[in-house]
User: Which sequence fits this backbone?
């Protein structure tokens, strides 16, 4: 017996972009980039697990609404120009 | 435009609910950069069933069909049959499951899909334990590792059994393509995903997926630990294309203790245990080189 999709029991569907989740609120450490020393190597962008970095003319722009503060960008940066500072500190 | 070494277009949104530094997020990000937006995923119970976000949010720009824990292989066969029935030809069907959902409970469904030669890509992101439910050991947990069900203590009850060799199991099915990938080598990863996409039949991708809480390490080390896994030859990068094995990255031959020592799950190992892991890694690496030179 064939059923049309309208006869199948309803199932929950997720249809909104996850940009509604402010995962930046989880952060304990914040990445701070010294743009003047950036070599535009794109490594930080490449390795950010959360897609929180976009490149603007080769330089990273970090979206703190979503950055979870994992520190991978700082660890991988070829110029060592990203530091992680405790959230709440100046 | 900046020159990037992997496609700049993203198929994931920020706001995923994976842990900070989750390797499985990178696995998905690179996979979709290789496959593009005409992709549909079948995902079983695992961390990635939770990571897309709280309802009604989804961090992927492609659709996901959730299945039961053991059913990924059946899910991809069903999706492919549905697209065939509708005459849709340009969609890449992907099964995306954890190591537990692949080498343990999902193995028979995967074996069935391989035997039926389902036209789909199956990706196992391997964080080497049942992470979503609290770090229980799986068949893919390596020998000697701490997990919550191999907790050590006075009885020294760490994982006593070696890791299941899923690449060998899949090769035994005579599938057209199988490859290992690493989040430390996105260029190699994306290339293999693109190659898998260009082929027909059941293609298998094994991705090592570092998990900071499960591996007891700092989240910033996810890429570094994946790099060390390749450099120590513990997780070699290779592909088996139509039966021919090719190593895609030789690695530096770094001592395996460099990989082990940054992870708390191995911190109890003594020198002789580390030596025995090194010996196993060396033997397996020599075998792999031999297979490559023999073209098998
Ligand atoms: C039949 C069944 N048994 C147990 C579970 C509970 N469960 C959900 S996810 C999970 C672990 C998944 O481990 P793995 O496949 O390695 O993915 P990970 O969570 O590590 O990403 C378990 C045991 C379930 N959902 N269904
Ligand atoms: S700290 Fe982690 S999440 Fe934040 S921008 Fe760097 S890599 Fe991305
Ligand atoms: S990794 Fe460092 S040097 Fe490279 S682009 Fe990012 S900030 Fe610049
Ligand atoms: S437990 Fe591990 S695999 Fe699961 S979301 Fe967290 S880091 Fe990722
Ligand atoms: Mg797992």
Assistant:
């Amino acid at each position: 017996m064939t059923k049309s999709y309208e006869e199948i029991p309803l199932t929950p569907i997720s249809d909104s972009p996850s940009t509604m989740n402010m995962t930046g609120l989880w952060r304990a450490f914040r990445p701070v980039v010294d743009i003047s020393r950036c070599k535009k190597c794109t490594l930080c962008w490449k390795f950010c697990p959360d897609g929180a970095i976009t490149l603007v003319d080769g330089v990273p722009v970090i979206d703190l609404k979503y950055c979870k503060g994992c520190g991978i960008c700082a660890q991988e940066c070829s110029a060592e120009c990203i530091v992680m500072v405790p959230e709440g500190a100046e | 435009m900046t020159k990037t070494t992997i496609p700049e277009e993203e198929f994931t949104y920020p706001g995923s609910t994976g842990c900070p530094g989750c390797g499985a997020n990178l696995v998905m990000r690179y996979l979709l950069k290789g496959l593009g937006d005409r992709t549909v995923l079948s995902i079983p119970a695992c961390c990635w069933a939770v990571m897309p976000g709280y309802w009604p949010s989804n961090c992927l720009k492609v659709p996901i069909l959730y299945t039961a824990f053991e059913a990924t292989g059946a899910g991809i066969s069903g999706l492919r049959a549905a697209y065939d029935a509708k005459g849709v030809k340009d969609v890449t069907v992907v099964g995306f499951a954890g190591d537990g959902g692949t080498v343990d409970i999902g193995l028979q469904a995967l074996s069935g899909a391989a035997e039926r030669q389902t036209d789909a890509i199956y990706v196992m992101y391997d964080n080497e334990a049942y992470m979503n439910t609290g770090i229980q050991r799986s068949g893919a947990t390596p020998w000697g590792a701490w997990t919550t069900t191999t907790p050590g203590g006075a009885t020294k009850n760490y994982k006593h059994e070696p890791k299941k060799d899923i690449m060998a199991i899949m090769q035994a099915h005579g599938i057209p393509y199988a490859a290992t990938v690493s989040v430390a080598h996105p260029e190699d990863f994306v290339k293999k995903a693109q190659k898998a996409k260009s082929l027909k039949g059941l293609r298998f991708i094994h991705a090592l997926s570092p998990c900071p809480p499960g591996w007891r390490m700092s989240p910033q080390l996810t890429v570094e630990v994946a790099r060390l896994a390749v450099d120590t030859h513990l997780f070699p990068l290779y592909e088996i294309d139509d039966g021919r094995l090719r190593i895609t990255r030789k690695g530096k031959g770094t001592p395996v203790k460099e990989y082990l020592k940054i992870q708390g799950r191995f911190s109890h190992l003594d020198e002789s245990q580390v030596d025995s892991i090194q010996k196993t890694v060396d033997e397996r690496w020599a075998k792999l080189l031999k297979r490559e030179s023999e073209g098998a």
